[in-house]
Design brief:
TIM Barrel; eight-stranded parallel β-barrel; 21% strand
Amino acid sequence: MNYKHWQMKHWHWIAASMVIFLVLYSCRKTEPASELIVLQSAIQFGVQGGKDTLSVRCNSPWSINNASSWLQLSQNSGSGGNTSLQLVAEPNNSGSTRSAVLIVNATNGQSRRITVSETSSIYPSYNTSPLAPDPVGMSTAVQLAVKFQLGWNIGNTLEAIGGETSWGNPQITEAYVKAVKQLGFTAIRLPCAWDLHVDNKATAHIDQNWINRIKEVVGYCVTNDMYVMLNIHWDGGWLENNISKPKHDSVNAKQKALWEQIATAMRDFDEHLMFASANEPNADDAVEMEILASYHQTFVNAVRSTGGRNSHRVLIVQGPNTNATLTSDLMNTLPKDPTANRLMVEVHNYLPAQFCFLNEDVSWGKMVYYWGNGNHSTIEPDRNPTYGEENDHIADYNRVKQKFVDKGIPVIMGEYGAYRRHGQTNMPKDMVKHEASVDYWITFTTREALARGIKPFWWDTGGALDRLHNTVKDQRTIDALLAGAK
């Protein structure tokens, strides 16, 4: 019998068999799809640790890998279904933010990752008596910048290692502040050390005697209607020499602890007092600028948290290296501030360094004695500048004006200066032209800065004004400054 004949003869049996097969196939038991649901992908604890809940839903047995010693789980496995397990994090006393990755593995082949992090703190909180915000009489940054013109640094004094008089200057007196004002200055910058005056390194607690002394000096300024800029200066370099990922947490912790104490102590002063986050932070690229920005954010948060007038006080943040070009290129955002329009930016100006302050020939440059149009020497041309003259200053000033001033963000030139070479081994051969160069640099830089809304603060360590007798020592410098401010 051929196959075709057999197929025709038994077609009814074949059809019946197919029907039975289809019925049995449709009635088979369907295997469920693999399922593993973890509701959280990230959990964050504060410095004190604490408890949180992790929810797991799975249709098969599962287990969690946890390699962290500071994080405990109420259970490390489950048989399936819905499970809520408790996470307990210990307080973080490590000084650094830490994290752990939990991996949930199910026998159905599914896997999920949860990142658990814990912030750090090295020091206790010093914001122990916050006040309600007090905006009364507190101007915006733009309004405040209009109220002062020419500033003066009391350098090598409150920032000196070893104390106020350790670098050869006498204690600041109210008579000295009055003398600065009488010359025609309307603002004072107080470079100040704080970490050098901590009486307990473990807690970053500032010696109360030092706080009281700084408060006294600030009072001299405010009482005499002088606007005053108080900062954390070099201070051993704990901030400005540590703009790096490894130091990020510890520097932020110290920044917070110190500024909570400073801000609380100075909180009752009116708008005459401004706070400045740092001095000359050593940041050179976008990565370091991001870290520096976090230090400035910590500063703003710490000051604002203390409340009272500090909630509306003008605060000043420094550009990378306080260099005008780097600041214009890299400082693209300012700290988030709960009070609008209360921030200023700070840059410095010692351009070119070989002319402004270098007092010996070094590997990276020779001393420059002459500066500016009409002041170059034909007697010793190797002491003329090769960069950093009028056009370079104007370009820098224009950069910061366009980047900040034109957008309603005042700019402080917190330090600037060029100094006469008297009494050194290698004296300028053309002293008349050298003196004229210094005069011209001072007047030019002061005038051009002010013309662009940039407020200049002359750096003085006792060379222009005698601090013992409150008399002028360098009349040419004072005259040049005042000529630039006209």
